[in-house]
Amino acid sequence: MATDEMTVKARKQPEPKLTGAVHRSRPTLDRRYLPVLGTVVVLVLMLIIGGSRYDNFLSGRVMANLLINNSFLIVVAVGMTFVILTGGIDLSVGAVLALSTCISAWMFVHGWPAYVAIPAAILAGALIGWAVGVMVHVFEIQPFIATLAAMFLARGLCYVIAPESIPITDPTIVKLGTRWDLGGGWAITPSGVIALAVVVVAFVTLHYTRFGRTVYAIGGGEQSARLMGLPVARTKVLVYVISGTCAGLGGLLFAAFSSSGYSLTGVGMELDAIAAVVIGGTLLTGGSGFVLGSVLGVLVLGLIQTIITFEGTLSSWWTKIVIGALLLVFVILQRLLVVRRR
Amino acid sequence: MTGLAQLTRHRLFWPIVALVVLLLASTLKSHSFLEVTVRDGHLYGAPIDILRRSSILLLVALGMTLVIATRGIDLSVGAVMAIAGAVTLTQIASSPDPGAVSTVAVAMLTGLAVCLVIGVFNGFLVAVLGIQPIIATLVIMTAGRGIAMLITGGQITTVTSAPYKTLASGFWLGLPVAALIAGVFFAVVALVTRRTALGVLIESVGINPTASRLAGVRARTIIWTVYVLCALFACIAGFLQSSNIMAADSNNAGLFIELDAILAVVIGGTSLAGGKFSLTGTLVGVLVITTLTLSITVIGIPVNAVSLFKALVVIVVCLLQSPVVQHKLRARRRQAAPVPVEVPA
């Protein structure tokens, strides 16, 4: 009798646990995906609104341009995502992007071949990122201040290298901007392909490598990450190097887009990149977010611009107001999510 | 030796050294740099110019210091300046009598009211909804210039109004009005925060909002108040800036001033981690940045290299102030003086 009861109990006990587990995993999906899902909903809504209001809005040409015209911002936002995931911020990306365009333009004018100028421009970005990483990690200067100093530094170097706009005629850079027709209005440029490649590499790095997990771990809690024996120092410096490198690469894509190197390029682009990352569902406190979300964020920003261009009667400043409003909505939504999770 | 050691350990030592070096370098290059003369009953000269030019940054940095003391940050100040100028100048321009004192007063009050609303909005996001300050104020930073353009209709509104021009270009008792305005606000804030418990309360919120709330400090009200104050100070800075050029330029008014203001606060020894603030430090930081900009031209650094020079000064000052370098300097000093009486910080 007693043993019977025990066996019944023993048999029964795991049952509620099991159903509980099933219940918990069944409803919808992981909460971590909710902010990104919000971005997808906004993107789809904007596509529907645009498609219903204007002819040719949903054409291959417009959609392809969305990717092509924002390829440099995608690359920059991807780099920014790494930094923000660790709980830092990088204000220098716009200036580093400009520096990269200036360096490549200057080297082309002075007769350097593309295979020297292009790596040099990217390397300059990586170097500035490395300097920022050292300031942040070794000298414990706050990321905000360190990247601010780097922003002034990069902008200052731009003015020294290229006080006036330098046209770029190098065939390699020009080739980056040539459209390959894919039929039906769809097209892609080598810069678009590079941007997509950067996204794929970043995605794999963040989700399938030890380095990527360390990035998330530092954002979740630097002290805990250190106690777990993760290479915090190396990773923290490296995320700024990645962001700088991405900004350098973004500069080359921008050079292909604008065919010139100019010291005032990309003023305020760091804000666009941060806005894209936030709209893409990454928390600025670090530790939570996805690189694909940032890409969606860039596309949302691009779509706002496209819709305002299509509308025609709306003045350009509405772009800023709409981006601000969208930012507000997303920030409040994220906040509500965090509160509900607790 | 110990006196000197204590002096170099003071958090304002390196910023003041930077200021003195800049002034010395300028004086060496142009011997009359520090000379102040009286012309038409007003004081003239580079030092007066530094004071006048400092006023806008000082007002913005004043509000920023309070916000940073609560472990916050306000990125929207530049946009608030643009909105303040846009609202006020649009109203003055559309009034029948732009030169009347009453018109200017009403327009400025309207500007202050609009900025008050923005400050309340920022404070609401941070204090009530608990959104990170950097992202909460990013909303207005992004949208604010758009709103200012909306108000001016995308144009640069210009006015001719003698009373409004006085704000930036006038003199009173031989001193520039702008510097006097900034000085009065600085003195009031310094008195109120340091002669009452308010300063300590602000710092307690910055150290630990939850603990201070449990201890009976109205953390929410204090955080809300500092954002409102910051917006109001930015608004007055916006008045001075638009009065200086007698135009509301929504794109360029106060552009990047949030960065300069944060820099001034940090150079002044206020930590971005909150919990401690120094208004004197902010004043020194503001003077360093303004003198830097002014002396660059005097010293003869090419205009193209201004930003580079600024970056180098900022990096050097920040590195010298960083905990690691401070620690190393202290350790070396301890080695030199064999009697270690200092209490480790």
UniProtKB/TrEMBL annotation, chain A:
Q: Which PANTHER family match?
A: ABC TRANSPORTER PERMEASE PROTEIN YPHD-RELATED-RELATED, INNER MEMBRANE ABC TRANSPORTER PERMEASE PROTEIN YJFF
Query: What UniProt keywords apply to this chain's record, in alphabetical order?
Result: Cell membrane, Membrane, Transmembrane, Transmembrane helix
A molecular function (GO) term: transmembrane transporter activity
Q: Which residues span the membrane?
A: 33-54, 66-84, 91-109, 115-136, 143-162, 182-206, 237-257, 290-310, 316-338
Which Pfam family, just one, is annotated for this protein?
BPD_transp_2
List where in the cell it is found. Answer: Cell membrane
Q: Which GO terms describe its cellular component?
A: plasma membrane
Topology of this chain in the membrane: Multi-pass membrane protein
Q: What is this protein called?
A: Sugar ABC transporter permease YjfF
Q: What is the lineage of its organism?
A: Bacteria, Bacillati, Actinomycetota, Actinomycetes, Micrococcales
UniProtKB/TrEMBL annotation, chain B:
InterPro entries this protein is in? ABC_transp_permease
Please name the Pfam families in this protein's record: BPD_transp_2
Q: Where in the cell is it found?
A: Cell membrane
Give the CC-aspect GO terms.
Answer: plasma membrane
Molecular function as annotated in GO: transmembrane transporter activity
Transmembrane helix is among the record's keywords:
yes
Q: Where are the transmembrane segments?
A: 12-30, 50-68, 75-94, 100-127, 134-151, 171-192, 222-241, 253-274, 281-301, 307-325
Topology relative to the membrane, per the entry?
Multi-pass membrane protein
- UniProt keywords, alphabetically: Cell membrane, Membrane, Transmembrane, Transmembrane helix
**Name listed for the protein in its UniProt record:** ABC transporter permease
Question: What is the scientific name of the source organism?
Answer: Cellulomonas rhizosphaerae
| UniProt lineage | Bacteria, Bacillati, Actinomycetota, Actinomycetes, Micrococcales
